[in-house]
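Posting for a labmate who doesn't have an account.
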Amino acid sequence: HGSRGGALFITHYFHNMMKNGNVSPQSSILSQTITFLRLPLIVAVVYIHTHPGHVVLDGIPVADKDTFPAFSFFQYVITEELARIAVPLFFFISGFLFFYRSGFSTRIYGQKLRKRVRTLLVPYVLWNAAFFLVMFCAQAFLHVSPDKYPAIEEFGWLDWLNIFWSYKGGMPASYQFWFVRDLMVAVLLSPVLYLIVKHLKAFGVFALGVLWLFGIWFHVTGFNIDAFFFFAFGAWYSMNKCDFTAVFGRVRLGATCAYLILLVVNTWLWHINVTDYSFLLRLGIFTGLVAVVSWTAHGISKNRLRVSAFLASSSFFVYAYHVLPVAMVVKTYVRLLPHADDWAFVAGYLLIPLFISAVGVGIYALLHRYLPAFTAVITGGR
């Protein structure tokens, strides 16, 4: 009953958001919303990758809900609920921008691929190579061999190739770049997604949404239903010249209420150790995406939120650099704690991602000022 009701609910959302939405995409609110969201969404990703709960103290995992209830609660709500909206929203915005203000032909497709070589492929290769170099030096000179990374001396030819595809557990060497990898696959397959959106229209996007919502997909690294659905969802708005901020704004209150209800329900299910509620989690991501976009656009339209082009431009660097600093700061923080204090872990979890993000923005500012050409290359010209 819950699944059928959820399907009707998301159908209602698609019906409302995909009708009468012919609003000019030239809106400054639209562009400002996209610009504003870039850094906050990256900070959300940093929260996802902050794992003090993986540390073991006196044989007790920090993530244990009974021993550290406050920390476990905050980590679940932020990491598994709020922050999970970030990556689908990035796919959605990417799909929208890919088809923005242009038609689609073989020539245009080639032009877009060439541009993505600079903005996606080059930084993807450079950052993964840099991360692998760090791991190589750690293993070769410091004799540090983290359990989650294979020993380099045991590498075969496939392992060397997998540095840039599936180094460990389906992730590239710098694991946060799985998003860029899957986005590049979606870009390569954009002609297929274009045909789906063009000929099947809203039904085609809805069909992809159903596959995503119910987790119906094959497992091939890089071929991600999250990427395909949200990329196509964003593409629909662009191809139909719809301002999604205006359309989402019409259901802002409904989406917000639905998301808050799902947040409470999902948190309760987590609290009572129910493990299979992925449908509700995905439904929460969808409604949360609509709520986040609509409230951001609303705040900008009311002059309550200010857009900073510089902060937006720093977001890719923060995304690219943050993994190793987060791991180092988390380990240091845990070791410096006088004892396993629940609220001390809450404070660390809340503050470390903000600290790492602020440091990243500062480093980016220095690089942008003194090494602008280098910075442009490693951030894809953003």
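Reply:
Got it, the structure tokens are right above this. The mean pLDDT is 88.
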